[in-house]
């Protein structure tokens, strides 16, 4: 009787084991299909400590420091988005060709040109892999790519899109302070000084002056929330319109610290951006959205709140 009861359990157990084995086979087949082709990089992403690439009018070398952070070889002080760099390195490490070309296939492709489209070099320890992207076959939508031994491969054109990122693509935006606008005790813009009293901005010397609260708060928010678009790590003396800035703003915080910000001229390559220097990083010059400077184009008259005056008169 016991054997008869155990038989269904044994069959069920065997079925579960068989199903698990089948799923493992299918999973392995799926992974094999997903990773079809030829791996072009013998290094895992974590093993790469130097990545160089050139092409599409870009030439960049990225180096991993002893602490694991990436830096730009030509400008080590430039702040880089470490996640963006790590993602790019993973893309290079994962490059796979459709197949290695041999025999008649090699005879049918054009000879290698003297001016390749792109060159990638990945180094980890004593291992270096150099990949040269040569001519394109637009009909088949592939590139012919060679390794340092001269072996030729075909690779889909789509797989190489976005690999030659500029330093600006990898730049990490900076903020001028870690304080919030709520921590501002006083704001000085040009000849105007504003203090916060009972949660409202007040014009220094004229506490009853009807200020446009939104406009003053916008200046405070801008200084605390502004993010830079670029950092010039070795600025030229007397350049950028910062010797005689268009706007100078000084912020005093409730903890006694202060921040001075100077907005300069528009950048020549993009009139939608302007130069900025901050006392929190006095040795560099930033490029920021020019709309930030426009927030400080105020006068005492422009900050007059006519609606507040009308409401006060009506109440009286």
For the terminal residues, how far apart are their CA atoms? 100 Å
pLDDT average, as an integer? 90
Order of helices and strands: HEEEEHEEHEEEEEEEHEEEEEHH
Percent helix among the residues? 10-25%
Q: Main beta sheet: strand number and arrangement?
A: 8 strands, antiparallel
**What is the general shape?**
elongated
Strand content: 25-35%
Enumerate the spans where pLDDT stays under 50 for 5 or more consecutive residues: 25-33
Q: Spatial order of the strands in the main sheet?
A: 4-3-2-7-8-9-10-6
Radius of gyration using CA atoms only = 31 Å
Topology, number of strands: 18
> Total number of helical segments?
6
**Which structural category do the helix and sheet elements fall into?**
alpha+beta
Task: Give a short synopsis of this structure.
The chain is of the alpha+beta class. It is built from 6 helices and 18 strands.
Describe the secondary structure blueprint for this structure.
Layout: H1 2-34, E1 38-39, E2 50-55, E3 58-64, E4 70-72, H2 82-93, E5 96-97, E6 99-100, H3 104-108, E7 118-124, E8 127-137, E9 142-146, E10 152-156, E11 184-189, E12 192-197, E13 200-203, H4 213-225, E14 230-232, E15 247-253, E16 258-267, E17 270-278, E18 285-289, H5 290-294, H6 306-315
Antiparallel strand pairs: 1-5, 2-3, 2-7, 3-4, 6-10, 7-8, 8-9, 9-10, 11-12, 11-15, 12-13, 14-18, 15-16, 16-17, 17-18
